[in-house]
Amino acid sequence: xxxxxxxxxxxxxxxxxxxxxxxxxxxxxxxxxxxxxxxxxxxxxxxxxxxxxxxxxxxxxxxxxxxxxxxxxxxxxxxxxxxxxxxxxxxxxxxxxxxxxxxxxxxxxxxxxxxxxxxxxxxxxxxxxxxxxxxxxxxxxxxxxxxxxxxxxxxxxxxxxxxxxxxxxxxxxxxxxxxxxxxxxxxxxxxxxxxxxxxxxxxxxxxxxxxxxxxxxxxxxxxxxxxxxxxxxxxxxxxxxxxxxxxxxxxxxxxxxxxxxxxxxxxxxxxxxxxxxxxxxxxxxxxxxxxxxxxxxxxxxxxxxxxxxxxxxxxxxxxxx
Length: 321
Known about the structure:
Layout: H1 2-9, H2 11-17, E1 22-27, E2 32-37, E3 44-48, H3 54-67, E4 80-85, E5 89-96, E6 99-100, E7 109-115, H4 151-161, E8 165-169, H5 175-184, E9 192-196, E10 208-212, H6 224-233, E11 238-243, H7 249-256, E12 263-267, H8 272-286, H9 292-302, E13 304-311, E14 314-320
Parallel strand pairs: 8-12, 8-13, 9-10, 9-11, 11-12
Antiparallel strand pairs: 1-2, 1-7, 2-3, 4-5, 5-7, 6-10, 13-14
Helix pairs in contact: 1-3, 6-7, 7-8, 8-9
């Protein structure tokens, strides 16, 4: 009986994820579906879907959880459900206080992804441009050039390359404001996912999801480790980490290693060198097996730091490394 209920309930979504030209769909809020299309130059396209109310989406997640015997209780238990639907469609859904789209979701939102139908030959080597006697393609290669001497050009190069950036500074140096401006320079068609302990980052891109891990009001079973799995499954083009703390440092560092471009986060520190050290020390707080110096060396290779400083009303970028 429950299978029949699910098959009936999911019908309004099938027109979006079943076509062969669809790679996956993402729903960030009620009434709107984003479709990721195979091979499209601008892969995400938005469609209005007023039939997909918030109650419908939450009921759908509940039903998937029941059919596949997954726990789902957003307020006091597990707010995320993973499942593989008939036809090998991968389903990810979350509801409750850990997910938001905008200020209207202050009491909790809903988001889900469904991986779409794959054509029968999608796994052929040819589709991956692997051919005998030919060199492998370089997809979104880093420039490999020496970092520009000019600090402005160095920052712009990092943004354009999609290199991870850590914005460092003391309290009231304008870290979040600076990060908000960087977001205006990124492709407006990008899919942005933020991970914060309170909503501060203002994302201009419409295809976005905000995950919230409150330091004071976290009552359910969601944690940063589970959040890492969820973020990866949500197919981000840009990941924004909240301010680095002992709770999230190791997970944010892992997120930087997932192969996604455009990772941005902030930290309290007085210099770029101190920012690297502070980040590493916070990682070691929960992951003491790392070698501190090796971790700092690796971090300096991967992560740019923009240092902000303040003197009275004067705020300035004082280092770009």
